[in-house]
Recover the amino acids of this structure.
């Protein structure tokens, strides 16, 4: 996939008034902005991933066709590519990196889109998981700049139960003495592996494991070989401070946590003026259809299409071709409106 | 609750041939055995609990009325009261305590029931969670000794997804350097707290948290105060080796893992000759209705009553009075057959 990688450097001013003077927002662009600058799609990244992991949904013949659209993928602060604990110099290095809300990140994305790229209106903001949180924030914060909104396995506010899951990841990192409050010199591998194994239970559904699909994620013949070969390896490579940063961001996501809506989620949902598509997955264990169903009636023009899958939250990771086609088709429908 | 506490001491011979010479099976008895010795009910304990935590279902006027029935509650090996890593002398102390299967435990319970107490047939074997695993094992292993079987939030074999959850608990303990492979002198508190916070997400349902019922579990006004005040405290007191022992037991539960059935779960289910009642909870995240529905057609006489609750797995803990009444009423129905 041909991506143009660029970065937008500027101050990141966080919710609590901390300023990181030259924060870097790294973004990838697929396709070209047209003269009218009205073919831009924003597709923010998810937890622990970069723009690369969004590419399976972008390409010729797909809904997000770079021949038709200019797809911009901003990397979320904390993901290790944009400014993060792992790549920021003192005094904001490691555990001293400030806590960043989804709203903080979206405000910087807004500067990039409107001031740097000169785009006044996005044809679509779409995201999965934490990407969906950013998309939701965009539509609620800048209703006149978002024509369409697609929320794939996301919510307007992090559910309490979802926060419990995230707090368990944080507790697992803290359980490892090597973590040392974020001042580790060698990675807290025990904690990171525990994070991976906790995630393993939440990311895919009970039915997915029941069908034995975990064994197909590699050359695995037992549950233990899968946990060790897939999840331990995946999380051993992650930076613990980055994980702490992103989980904090995730836990505190709330489109109504601002002066305009003062915690009134209904008010924030009513502010959305985009043609909206909510796409929960039937078997997602933390971003649930029930939560989207509660949001739907409060959004002016809102469709809900449940993804009929046993892949749980991971249905939109690109690992399940059937679900990828379902999502691509739904996005095509939304873009045709 | 008046309980007669006694212990049965004898060799515990485990699945891999290890023998703990004078293992202690501590059991509580509520009510008296009648002359015909046909009014005995066996009600094994659940994960991390003793006979005390079963008492909410026992009492005058309840289905398990000690005026009518003799309710025997054997404490599961590993629970800290019966022989466990925490209370067994060398050479089987701490991490040297052998791994024990549900079948190993049930074989000792069978000695107690038949040889010591002289009971040839149990009117009912009932259990919740790991207690349900023991009940299932009883009915499949000793079909001519079990008249009725009640499985509350349990399964004939531990589901793969359930094992993933349990492996995450084990990884969290191992992540704490204080664990030291089970040779800790001071408890691995970080690991234990992480275990509590992982458990918090699985034990109750998403809907339960959504309704804010977690705040009613104590004097809590935030999620963090609940996690710290309820779960951290609960698991800080647990013995890590005992938790490792019991999670191993739980993971390896399979009523067909024996020479007779050789892993054929259908064959093991067909061996059951008890009037059976499967009671999954609608919102249980690890012992699921889907698994019980797959078992039901293979058991000769089997009813399934789903507990209509948002309390998730914990509906049968005694914390939810409505669910306790539902279960009590269902047990009354089963005992009336």
């Amino acid at each position: 996939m041909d991506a143009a990688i660029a970065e937008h450097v500027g101050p990141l001013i966080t919710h609590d008034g901390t300023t990181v003077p030259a924060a870097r927002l790294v973004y990838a662009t697929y396709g070209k902005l047209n003269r009218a600058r009205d073919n831009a799609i924003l597709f923010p990244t998810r937890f622990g991933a970069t723009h690369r992991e969004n590419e399976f949904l972008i390409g010729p013949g797909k809904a997000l066709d770079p021949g038709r659209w200019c797809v911009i993928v901003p990397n979320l602060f904390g993901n290790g590519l944009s400014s993060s604990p792992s790549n920021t110099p003192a005094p904001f290095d490691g555990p001293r990196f400030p806590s960043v809300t989804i709203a903080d990140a979206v405000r910087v994305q807004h500067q990039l889109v409107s001031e740097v790229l000169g785009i006044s209106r996005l044809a679509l903001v779409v995201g999965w998981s934490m990407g969906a949180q950013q998309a939701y924030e965009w539509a609620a914060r800048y209703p006149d700049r978002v024509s369409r909104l697609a929320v794939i396995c996301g919510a307007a506010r992090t559910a309490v139960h979802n926060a419990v899951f995230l707090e368990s990841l944080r507790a697992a990192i803290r359980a490892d003495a090597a973590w040392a409050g974020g001042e580790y010199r060698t990675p807290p591998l025990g904690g990171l592996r525990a994070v991976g194994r906790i995630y393993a239970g939440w990311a895919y559904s009970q039915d997915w494991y029941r069908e034995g699909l975990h064994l197909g994620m590699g050359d695995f013949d037992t549950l233990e070989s899968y946990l060790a070969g897939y999840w331990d390896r995946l999380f051993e490579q992650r930076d613990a401070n980055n994980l702490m940063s992103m989980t904090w961001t995730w836990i505190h996501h709330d489109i109504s946590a601002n002066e305009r809506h003062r915690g009134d989620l209904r008010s924030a949902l009513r502010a959305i003026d985009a043609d909206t598509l909510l796409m929960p997955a039937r078997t997602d264990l933390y971003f649930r259809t029930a939560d989207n169903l509660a949001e739907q009636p409060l959004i002016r023009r809102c469709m809900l299409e449940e993804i009929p899958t046993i892949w749980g939250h991971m249905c939109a990771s690109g690992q399940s071709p059937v679900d990828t086609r379902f999502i691509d088709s739904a996005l095509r429908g939304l873009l045709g409106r």
About this structure: Residues 162-248 of chain B form a domain with the Rna Polymerase Sigma Factor; Chain: A fold (CATH 1.10.1740). Chain B is about 35% helix and 15% strand. Residues 72 and 266 of chain B are 29 Å apart (CA to CA). Residues 321-336 of chain B form the longest helix (16 residues).
